[in-house]
Amino acid sequence: MSSDFTLTSDTSRKVKDQLARYSVTTGGLLVLVALLLIFFYLLYVVEPIFHPAEVKAKDQFTLPQTANTLAIGMEEQTEIGYAFSDDIAVTFFNLRHIEQTSQTPGKVLHQQQFEHSGELSSFAQSSSVQRLFAYGFDNGEVLIVRPQFAVSFPNDIRQLVPEINFVAGEQAIEIDSEGEALSQLAIEKSSDTIAIAAHTADGRLLISHLLGEENFMTDEIEWSAQTAEIDDAPEQIDTLKISSNLAYLFLQSGNQLYIYNIRDIDEVELTQQMAVNAQDANVTTMNLLSGGSSVMVGNDNGVISQWFEIRADGGRTFVNAREFKSGHAIEQIVPEFYRKSFFTVSKNGHLGIYFTTSDATLFDEKLKSKSISHIAIAPRSNAALVQTAEGMQLYEVKNEHPEVTWKALWQEVWYEGYPEPSYTWQSTSADDDFESKFSLVPIAFGTIKAAFYAMLFAVPIALASAIYTAYFMSSGLRKTVKPTIEIMEALPTVILGFLAGLWLAPIIEDNLPGIVLLLIVLPVTIITTAFAWHKAPKQWRQKIPEGWDSIVLIPIILFVSYLAFSFSNELEILLFDGNTRGFLTNELGISFDQRNSLVVGIAMGFAVIPTIFSIAEDAIFSVPKHLSNGSLALGATSWQTLVRVVLLTASPGIFSAVMMGLGRAVGETMIVLMATGNTPIMDWNIFEGMRTLSANIAVEMPESEVGSSHYRILFLAAFVLFIFTFMFNTVAEFVRQRLREKYSSL
Fold first, then answer.
1. CATH number of the domain located at residue range(s) 441-743 in this protein
2. For residue 122, what pLDDT band results from cuts at 50, 70 and 90?
């Protein structure tokens, strides 16, 4: 009977051991699989942002035109194109084959002739966003038109109907009262003003503002022109352009660029004149980048330079920020509608695509045709319409993420209007002309900064507590202290972040001298109390059980903390004239934000302390007693035994505890989200905030467009955070194993 029972017990134990082994192995493998799935999913989302630009030829067709084309374009869906010609007419034509309406590429949909009283002498078009086209005549008049498309659904079939909007009326507007021919034109529009610059045949440069007012009787917009003459203009004018905010007139004459301030046309002034040609080259073309803040200049040696305005010591000035080299003489520069990309056309048929912010050449290849007379970019930047001697050619453009390059993400970039290259994260703005700034350096720096200050606060407290609790504290008190600290880990970090942002931050700001005093006085008080307790009479010390000595410190620490905060106002008045924040800012040049790194360090430190304490305390307490007893038996003091035996043996666990705490601090989200200003700056100042990778993802992911560059870069930030924690854990495990091998023989 006994033998049967033993056999049954052994079999049951063996089955349980096998089940436990397989369960643990399966769980470990599933964890690894989950990590790999996260890793590859992040790569899957991030990978498209590094795809190169592609240009593929689609439909080719010819138009039944007898006049010369002045400009071409297309609507947003790239279904309909249009061409303005020198017979003062516009032709709308189909771009794609549409089965529902039986339309083929090149089919003329609508043609409209404009009424005019003079002969054509000039032609101009505004920025791509405004899509204005202006005809200038030999009698000093200008006709302004804009193509637009109405959407209808006859028989539930979507249909686009092209039409012309006469922006300033169907009749041409007089710009030159003397009736001279307008040989050069530039046009741009703001919300209620149209600016026109014109160079007349007799050499005068005119600037005119058309102001629209609604007639309260007819509800029609009536336009009136206010014109002024610019006296100091050069005789030769090759190109005229007006900035989108109607602030500047850019005039290119040979290799010289003249910049006029036209905000007030009654007081137009020349603000800057400079040579903009590349070395040993001549300017061939000029255009404004999307937003109208940057001037793009092309040269006959293939160099394209970008010029924009910055604030310098002598005032605001335009500088050469960067250059692109194509190797082919530039004939045309065509910007995209909204992004900082631009296309170039060379004499030999080379097409180039560049992005200024990332300083990247995205595409540079020779098209089939040797000459390109006109090129237009689709509003969504997904197509290009090219006119050559052979006719019209529609190209599909795949260039979804031009903003993303290694330099744009991890190196300093010179952004429009910035005085110098910088690391900047600013992903969104209310302005369509905004230049996205996707540098990951500030938020990666903020992650390291937040973790550093949190660990600076947490590690000394957690390790000192773990050492005392495991080695010196009595077992009875330890049974109370250890669970109490460990239960802190269950406190939601959102509560800590809430308390830090709304309660702790104002307290620190109002009592900053007291906080500084507490940091100095508290360690001194603890050491002094310990020394005094050591020198106290023996009968006093015997009243407190061994291992309960730390209880004495509690009222003393509370009392000293109360005194430090009580004298905070007096110290502020005595040392800082009643304004500590003003003293830091004005006298020391140290910025102070209410929600700063000090607040984050304290709040996140409290979140990290339980993790470090629990692991380190277990490691120290688990050191075999025979090692410490043997050391004590050989005459070593308790302190010598702790430093030379216990801590060395427990060092793998202590190091793991610190690295686990660091990993927790690096990945923390809610505390840094609520307790900092979330400003992506690079400054070690403890009185300023930061923005971390995790907080940045939490803040911006809900507002990002799925599939956009912003969306995928946020996933890239998550990937970087994943790599951070993976590296920390890998290094921790490697060092832990080395320490275990080194001290396992003790």
1. 1.10.3720.10
2. very high
